[in-house]
Amino acid sequence: MEKYNYSFFIIVPVSALILGLVAWRSKSIGTSMIVHALINSMANIVANFTW
Fold first, then answer.
1. Distance CA 31, CA 20 (A)
2. Alpha-carbon dihedral of residues 27, 20, 32, 49, nearest 10 degrees?
């Protein structure tokens, strides 16, 4: 049985829709880029957090 990467089929489309909505509502791709950077930074902090 093959192992599927569910994050690719769930996280990527949902985040693309959210970032697209941010860009559409703000009428600027810069806002979407800032939100993307913040999300990546938070994910990096959580992934490298030592208990």
1. 10
2. 160
In whole angstroms, give the CA distance from residue 44 to residue 27: 28
List, as own/partner pairs, every contact residues 10-18 make where C-beta atoms lie below 8 angstroms and the sequence separation is at least 24, other chains included: 15/39
Helical residues (DSSP H) of 1-51, grouped into ranges: 6-26, 29-47
Maximal CA-CA distance, the chain = 45
pLDDT digit of tens for each residue in the chain (51 aa)?
466 677 778 888 999 999 999 999 999 999 999 999 999 999 899 888 876
| Cβ atoms of 39 and 22 closer than 8 Å | no
